[in-house]
Queue: 3 jobs
Job 1
Amino acid sequence: MDSLPPLLPPHHPSTYSTDEEDIASEEHKFWQIPSSTLIISPSFQKPKLNLASQVKQILGCTLEQADEEIEREWLNRQG
């Protein structure tokens, strides 16, 4: 029968930390059972646009401006 992995010791802040200690601390927090039934939602953060979205947004604005300028020139020639 498979046994459960050993519990990690509680993390105590110290004046120095190593990567291994940071990883152990994060893993401990992950496996720690919440002490209350209160559900806390994560803080809302505006998602960052990835490069493709930024390019699409900039090119879209630029194309709209060019289209408006062409339409103005066309209307000026017609009128």
Job 2
Amino acid sequence: MNEEEDYYVYIVRCSDGSLYTGSTNNLPARVEKHNRGEGARYTRGRRPVTLVYSESAASKSDALKREIQIKKMTRADKLSLIKEQS
């Protein structure tokens, strides 16, 4: 992959209400993959998923760093992040 592509960090809400955080360079395609059961193992049994948050990142490296930051957040902090964007 080209480091000059656009990258995104995202949160999807799963059918059981849980939140999954990931990163990608093609947000619509990645959400669709989750909904087809081709995404992360975590989301496969929790479909459908709904995109509830996304932010752009300057590079793949930045996206991965931010993904890790968000994954370390509490659920309450993630919900606040989602609310701020809506």
Job 3
Amino acid sequence: MPLFGGYKANKLKPQLKMAVTRFTIASNKKSALMKQQIREIAKLLAEDPPKEEKARIKAEALIRDDDTVEAYELLQLSCELLSERLNLITHSKECPADILSTVATIIWASSVVDIPELIEVRKQFRYKFGAAFDERAMLNVDGIVNDRVASKLSFQPPSAYKVQTYLEKISDEHEVGWKPKVPLKAEDIAQPMPPPVGYSVPENAASGLNKKDYDAGAPAPSMPSTILPVPPKGKEGAYVPVLPAPAVAIPVPVPTIPKTSNKQDDVSVTKDDFVVEEPDIFVPPAPRSRPHSGNNTNNSSEVNNRGRTQSAGENPKGNDDDDDDEDKTGGDATYDDLAMRFAMLSK
């Protein structure tokens, strides 16, 4: 027995009575909240379209609260029973067999429910029946804890069938007329409710523009593209986006670089870059005859003699091939001389 404490009947009995009152208050509080949850679920099912997935989540919380209230009522009965049999507990060295499950259930529930009085009750039973008995009750050895209380306070989520049953009952009570959009399969009845995938969430709910609105002919911005997609097969009157024609590149002529004959440039020049043309030699018209001291006969004979002299390769004095008067003879090239030179160049 501990030095500064131990089993005391005068401490156990008031704690049991206070626990009964605490269970009653907690049950009434949860029951009021459950009625509000039921109204919220009915409102979700009555919307168009029904928010079925959100209603299922709230129904799961409703089921958990319902199970908790049921467990509170069972634990409340256990506390009342132990309070009435307190003398039997006080005068027994070991836990009586007829209340073994009741005492073990109270010890196990003290760490699950939010009732502080059960913690003090557990301490008194630990002082009375020992730490080994307390450990057996906490681990539920041999199933000594009440099965119904253990299942109602379990952390396992409810089955999908139970959730759907709650939704159908709420729909019938509030005359909503809801039917499940996705029916349950046979293999999913005993399994927990699947996570939401968003099939009950409407598209573009914030802006109010549903897919039906902008598919009915509302203008949509066109995007440039060089590939024209095949128009989808939709309903008659549906909007089909028209994409602009692809841009075509216009060839721009490249400016040519003029060819130069400068030897300092490194540009290679081929023979095709130049076209050899005949030189355009300007032949002036025949000059007017200038007066001479002699007659025309002398002039013609002089021209004939000069032609014979040049054909023979001679260069008479005073008649050189140059147009200037380098020999100081006073002679000058005539039109006939120039014509003869041009004929020789053409050969």
